[in-house]
Fold each of these.
Amino acid sequence: MTPDKNKALQKILSAINKRSPVHYQIPNIGKFIFNKIVPYIFIYRVPSPDKRDKMLADLAKTENASIVCKSYDFNLEEWLKPIAQKLAEEFGACLLVEAWVADHNQKEDIMIHVGQKDLLPLAEYFQKNIKKEAREIFVSIAKDLNIPQPIGVPILYSKKELQNKQILLMGISIKQNYVDSDDLVLPMLIRLYRETLAKCLSRLFFEFLRVYTHLNATAQRLNFHQELTPLMNEIDKSLAQESTKFDFLLMVTPLNAHEAWLQFKKDKYWKTPKFLYRPLHVDPDLVKRRLYNLRIEDIYDPTMAYIFRDKRTELDNMVSMIADRGKDDFLHGSLQVFGNVSEKLYKSAMAILMVTEPEEPIKKADDYISANEFAKMARDEVKFLQSQNAEFNSPVRVREDISGVMVNRGVLNISKEYKVTRKRAEALIQHEIGTHVVTYFNGRQQPLSIFSLGVPGYEELQEGLAVLAEYIVGGLNNDRLRIIAARVIAVQNMLLGNSFIDTFSMLVDQYNFLPETAFTIVMRVYRGGGLTKDALYLKGLMELITYLKDGNNVHLLMMGKIRKDYLPIIKDLLQKEILIPPAVTPRYLFPEFSPQWKDVKRKGSIFKLIQ
């Protein structure tokens, strides 16, 4: 390799290292294009000046990373190997897809060539998508004994080199059905092939990122549409309709929590309480049928297809959980939806309980405010937010059939038996109204309902933000931190197979919680048959503190009910004006609280929030 070539190659490798887009043209040879640094490359080697295939050349332009070059008088492998190796080192794997015009003996319209066993699942996925997109195109897979490549060109990799599973090479040979006997392009057919392959390659690369690399596929924004398609809107609307047919939290929260506590106390804490739940008013099988009748596979954009598919799976799991209340399968569903307790999270929770003093009973009766007084405070906060946007609204209801407080679709529900100390009340207002209601309202202003209902797995970020809001307004005291940590311990104890009584006794005897506080913690964790959701409060708070420490923007989190790894998508959609900025800003993000936010960034650890 000449010094000039070496210098050019180093420029490309440096761009990969910095994640900077790079375009490099070799005069009279070809182009290396990385519109985005991704661990895959589409390759088209032109066999001769008069044999350049327009469809393949145009297809290369649709990809984030592509190489179009001569196959003659150019050693592509000298450039490709260090580039592919660098991508594999950076991302965990690299996929090379080379396309070429098939010879006249090929019967199939498209043949997918695979020479590595590890690549077969991707090839089958690619084939399946082509069949769905264009039934008139006949496609099959060839499990090549040799390296997949066009005939008569230098090999890019030897079979021995491809034993390194970090580099995957797939070939696509395509019959020129879109060119007639006089070498004239047939416009309808060439568009069919180009659009079909562009869609299916986009999905192929997305699946490769998701399964074969350590990247978060949703963060890659692969060829996202400039506007939402009618099919996207239709599926979003359908998912919203199915979501509103059942209220998950209400359906898994006991109707008789207060009465169960009184009976538990009367039984001297030795008899497991019996919880009653709302009757199931939806048919899970019908909900599932409607969910899986949605044509998500027909969405061109792989990112939106992934988000919708993810939300469908979550709704499927949630409706199954409601049907499985009181059964072992409920806990299995909870682990799928809300996750497990990691060792790091468990140790952090234990450490918080060890370094903080147990709560003391409130002696003065007037230190507590009633449910109705708390409801008045909430309504006052709603009026404050309405001053920013007249459409903002949140009904505040005092009810007999719930436990504690909860927000459901923008409505604040408060238990008739609920009481809270005056010091905690303002913090709780910012938790429930300032976070849960505000993000619901802001999400409703977006063109997709999924941002108000919640993208799959939004709870971690949402609860972390809500708890941090308590700290910002001065209401996250040690007692509250202890409760959040105890929830993690209770979830872990439940997952280990311990009973309600065992976990209650542990919190009272080992960690000195008051019996009523311990009962509430354990009831929330054991409801329905085992709900792991309560571990997300501490997990989300810790993740959010790290997010702020790294200098990220907290205002972006108010867009709707989102999760952290969706933020690259959201930034992209904001730039394209598909999404709009938050319509309402909560009180705790006003300038008067800037010092508190700076304090959190400076401290950078949950343990430094302990008073």
Amino acid sequence: MSRRKPFSGSQRELVVALDIGTTFSGISFSVLNPGLVPEIKGVTRFPGQNPSDSSKIPSIIYYDARGVVRAIGAETQLPATIDQAETEQWIKVEWFKMHLRPKSYVSDPAFKKIPPLPPKKSVIEVFADFLRYLLSCVKSFIEETVLPDGVSFWASVQNRIIFVLSHPNGWEGLQQSYMRQAAVLAGLVSDINDQDRIHFVTEGEASLHFCVNNGLKIGENKGVIILDAGGGTIDLSAYSSSKSGKVITFQEITRPQCHFAGSIFVTGLAEDYVQDKLKGTRFYGDVAAITDSFDCTSKLQFRNSKEACFIKFGGRNDTDLALDIRSGQMKISGSDVARFFEPSVRAALKAILKQRSDAQATITSVFLVGGFAASPWLLSKLKDGLQLLGLEVYRPDTHVNKAVSDGAVSFYLDHFVTKRVSRWPYGVSCFVGYDKDNPEHQRRGYIVSKASGCLKVDNSYSVILEKDVQIEEEQEFRSLYFGETIAPLRKISADILRYEGANKNPEWIDVDTEMYTTACTVTADVSRVSYTTHRKPGNGSTYYKTSYAIILLFGLTELKAQIAWKGKDGVEQRGPAQVVYEQD
């Protein structure tokens, strides 16, 4: 389905989507020609790449001992590179995307096998190195393929390219801020505040756009779950559609989910099995080779738990029948391989059922995309578990491993999603006037305002946005502030608190305290905001009253903020506000 309109700009432009996956990465782009309908294309040539693997490259970097990049992507798989890496003891960095995961996942035992970052390299620096490489790849590809003159075209747009960066559903503002820093360090843009050229989209929403462009249709008042099964995460998003004339839009109908149960965790269980079986034998040194062979071939070929899996790793002299090794192949029973998949299958099924029960529409189907979606075993187990429940499972008949990068470009061009669902309650901690008859106030006691002398109660939680609310993109949420200060306010800083507890009506942050976290801090210059002067009772000293609102736009894929106040003529005025995230 495509309702894309011709590009209305006056000069050629370029949109580039960079999808850095846990195990593989890809690039899609669209050249916007005035008067023509934009098309989405992929970079299909990378240095060192086998032509049969043209759509993606491994998310791997080799560094030398000084921290200098020596090889990236498909080049890391070349025999000459591997030999040099071993000889010169280069440091292999893979699965580095997982180091950006939210703090709540850091101690999860599922991540025990995530390789460490190289010494003296932050995750932002590693991300930047990979982004810099992807930028060079798309530059070369466009210069070679875009007609009539790709070189001059790139030179004309390179300082105004629109970049779309995708990330798992479970990542929020802090992870986006890290990615923005990496984009600046990589040279995608020159200034971290150049927000107009960097856009973010969740992998779930990008995958929806991919599915819509590849034939996804939803009946009226029906819903669909998009399941993006990748290397590190399984991301789920649920949508319904609505139609106004010829225009079809999509609305999120429940909170998106992100589970760290992607294909690397299947490989991790396979490695545990091989280590346990070969411990103390002469083949123990081959564990890494066997695991790599399973990861590259057997994992995505496995389809029958009643048939054994054979993993090639050595030569004809490598035989030990007691260890199920014959002529350099290790035999693993189908039931054991199925066990490696079980946690991922279970997590996916549980998440789908949760999405269906929470959705604000009837879910009738599941669309499976992502690199892990190529697994016939995963597809068959999801079908087995869901068809009896009336849910049909589909897999688009195209390159499902390019869903995120193609969908990310479509996100920018087509903008199918108009409503999203809030994941948590968001609010602020504030003072309220002391009420001597309120038991909650009596319990907490009061403090005396230094400016006005009024009695106040601290730790009240003022909710700005409730959980599970369907939000339109441009819908505004306000938090009103009434300041009493000894001197006129010049700058403000307000923490936006997210509540992750079970209380449906949180009112005080000193109750369930550990469930409140700072989602971000909004700062703004308020020197233009009007104020009134007053006299403090008793000593008659002057204090200042200020009234303003912080406006938050939660319905976008990236949180935006403004500040608003009433001018002396009573007309609302607005100014910019910055959203700042505390670094881990």
Amino acid sequence: MLYTYKIPSLILLAMLHFAIPVHAADNAIISWRDWSPQVFSEAKKSGKHIILNVEAVWCHWCHVMDQKTYANPAVAAAIAKNYIAIKVDHDANPEIAARYRAWGWPATIFYNSDGVEIVKRAGYIPPESMTALLLAIVRDPSPERVVGAISITNPRSSLTVDDKATLIAMHKSSFDAKSGSLAIAMKFIDPDSVEYALLSGMAGDNSELARANKTLTAALKLEDPEWFGFYQYSTHGDWDHPHYEKIMRTQTRHIRLYAQAYAANQNQTYKTAAENTLIYLNRFLKAPNGGYYTSQDADLIQGQKSANYFALKDKQRLALGIPRVDEHRYTKENASLISALTRLYSATNNIAIKTEALAIGEWLLASRQRKDGGFNHGNSDNNSHADSKLFLADNISAVAALTDLYEISADRKWLKQAIATADTIRENIFSSELAGLAAASIDKSDPLAPYVDLEENILAARVLNTLHHYSGRAIDKTLADKAMAYLTNSAVIASRYTEAGILLADAELNRDPLHLVIVGPKSDTNAAALFSAALANYQSYRRIEWWDRSEGELINHDVEYPELAKSAAFVCNDQRCSTPIYTAKEIPEVIALIEGIKANR
């Protein structure tokens, strides 16, 4: 299958003429400032409060708020008199995005002149309501509620029996048996819940397998029938009211999960969904000089809903133009795409997908990597200097991507890069004073205390633990345990509706991954077939390596393998290894035996 479909250049130029309306904020009468410590210092000196508008460039209601609320003269006057106004694109600042993710987009946050959060509001605020709120805060700037940081006095690297039971109960009770996904009004794929259900199902729990398949099948209704790619979510408690933005995070999650589900049960529909998503990305979000863009807007004309537009066929849409594409190329989004593509390649053995994943990796190294091994976010394509902050979201996603590239290529360069990035996280983001890993590098000049994000720490615990098994370094496991200490806190668990990601992390940190090693020359076709068969297994927690003796020992050479007359594979688990495996078809049978499950369930 050909994965790249380019729009003819003349048509593209015509589309761009119609498709990129002026952003409302460009003509705003409010003097918006960027997020910086200087703004908070200025507020303290002037006695003014601060209003923070966290928006997303693809977000319909963010556009409406710019056009109707912030363009309102009364609102602008009230802000100018008593506030300093900050606007942040949540894709451009992962730390702010993590800190205020629960408030949706747009999020409106108020601070007093001392930099203390006093009021938070979620979603669109009409002009009259905003004017009243601005005046009310001036009259009484008392915090609406004070929520202290979660204190962890006895950090643990694993769940207690009771907390694990609580999380499992939360997982089971949160499922919408009628429609799939979580039992909430917003319908989308919650990736950790689906992955946990899929893995539990493949281990023999038929009810969990049915749950995973129900959600994955239902979520296909969010796929754009013309251009492919997935809309972010649906409202009204069903899958029939989509919000039409297509953000990279949504695309990578769908590619990864559908690829993993296809590897588990060979459902061709899942394979097609993953492949079609890549077709969409290559048509609309692939940059001509490397990497991928961040998102495509929900609206053709910003602030005007576009359901009628997305009901059109391809040529009819193109005649009107295409929704705005955010052409920033961020590390997190591109690294996450690499990880998704490595899973798709593993499941399909399509060399074009592997080639694309490696190309994105080379682009990240060339354009986003710092000299110390860490990665800049990418608000500018000028990589001649380091960003002032390192974000955990970027760097832990990069560790995952680099490790995944090592897994599918057996090229040790990628693993060495992953190790260097983990060291940068340790040196810049780790703090002994915090539970978990902070969302950004620690800087005492920051106006707000460091923030620890649960989603980022789930990823960090899992990724750093996997890296530990590849690297053999105890310091990588220590860093994984640091993230896990936050996740296992009972207060954190109690604050969640459901969080299967903690269960996944706990299971992985307390056992070894399934370990598959191919021993033989990389020039040998049978060794290559064994390697492909090893990659094709559905396990998400695994360590796959190809040892060509001519390259010297593996970086973590923790098992001695016999010298054999021909290439062979070995499957290891719980300090036991199989006898040599000489044919690709034997690998799933041996994995099934070792894992205690039925092959090809």
